[in-house]
Amino acid sequence: MPRVKARSHDVDEMARMMRAEAEGEGKQGMLYVGNVIINRVVAQCLDFKSVNNIHDVIFQIQGGNYSFEAVQKGNVFYQRSRTSERRLAQQNINFWRDHPAKYALWYFNPHASCPPTWYGQPHSGQFKEHCFYEPKAGTCDSVYRG
């Protein structure tokens, strides 16, 4: 059973986001970005209480800006998805999860070493240039269940 409901359009949007955010980090990096997207749909806590589907996550605005840099800049996100990226997105939707993004709700590329926390959330690991962060214990139990 999939972790979230997704139509063809959702799979395409997610695939475009995964490509835009992590194409340089290969399939594995794109899968980790997909983990974060699906985790945010499932989380229903913290900043993600009002996001209920993939589209909501991708276009969420926080602090006056889109949450994802690729949407803010727009140039890469609006490229078409490829079949290989749609397959990766479908893997995430169908329940693919892995460390360091297994429970992560955030990631970023610091262009330096990963800080041990990011806005108070613990570092869960790093893959190539991206640092991943999961919620502090007890603040978002739904991400660990879903």
TrEMBL record:
Gene3D superfamilies: Cell wall hydrolase SleB, domain 1. Transmembrane segments: none annotated. Residues 24-133 form the Cell wall hydrolase SleB domain. It comes from the Bacteria. The keyword Nucleotide-binding does not apply. The keyword Transferase does not apply. GO terms for molecular function: hydrolase activity. It holds the Pfam family Hydrolase_2. Keywords: Hydrolase. This is Cell wall hydrolase cwlJ. It comes from Neobacillus bataviensis LMG 21833. The lineage of its organism: Bacteria, Bacillati, Bacillota, Bacilli, Bacillales.
